Automatic annotation (TrEMBL):
Keywords: Methyltransferase, Transferase. One of its GO terms (biological process) is methylation. Residues 46-133 form the Methyltransferase domain. GO terms for molecular function: methyltransferase activity. This is SAM-dependent methyltransferase. It comes from Chryseobacterium sediminis. Pfam families: Methyltransf_25. InterPro entries: Methyltransf_25 (IPR041698), SAM-dependent_MTases_sf (IPR029063). The keyword Cell membrane does not apply. The keyword S-adenosyl-L-methionine does not apply.
Amino acid sequence: MTDNTWLNRWDERYSSEEFAYGTEPNNYLREMLTQLTPGKILFPAEGEGRNAVFAATQGWEVSAFDISANGRNKALQLAEQLGTTIDYQVGELSALNYQEQQFDAIALIYAHFPGDIKSSIHQMLNQYLRKGGFIIFEAFSKSHLEYIAKNEKVGGPKDIESLFSIEEIKADFPDYDSIELTETEIELNEGLFHNGTGSVIRFVGQKTI
C-alpha cells in the first residue's frame, strides 16, 4: 500500500511547470541504450518521463509507470512535444498488468523505492524481463549520504535503506551476466534536484534464465 506521504511528496515535486530533473535523458541510460537493438522497454518509477520519452525517440516501444499522476501528465506532454508516444500507467507495480517476459529491457534510473519494498519490486520486475533481456540501472549508493551532507543540491534519499549497494544488486538480480556492476563517483546536472558530485551504483546485466 502506498504511503500517502510518499505519494504527496512526488505529486508535489512534479506539480510545477518546470521539470524537476530536466527533460534530457540520464547520461548513462543514453549511453547504454545506443548499444542495444530497440525493442520493448519498461521504465519503473519514471516520474516526468525524460528517460522514457528519449527511448521512444530512439525507436523503442516504451512502457512506464509511477505513483504520481502529475509525473504522468508531464511525461505525456513531453512525448507530445517530441512527436512520440509512450504507454504510461499510474499505480503500484503489483496492481499493474504487465506480463511475464514482456520486455527486452528494463531501465531503473534513480528508481528509489522505500527500503522495505525495494528488493521485492526488483524481484517482481525480474519476471517481466525475457531471457536474454537487459537491466540498465543507475541509482545512488549507500556512500551517497556523505555527499548529501556536503551538498544537498545533489539530491537523493537521506535514509540509507533506500540507497543501494553492490551486494544488494547481486542479491536482487542473481540470474544475470553482469556486463557492468560498479560503485562510482559522478557529476550530476539534471534539472533542479540532481546537481553536484554524487556516488552511484551502475549495473548492466543480461538475464540468463
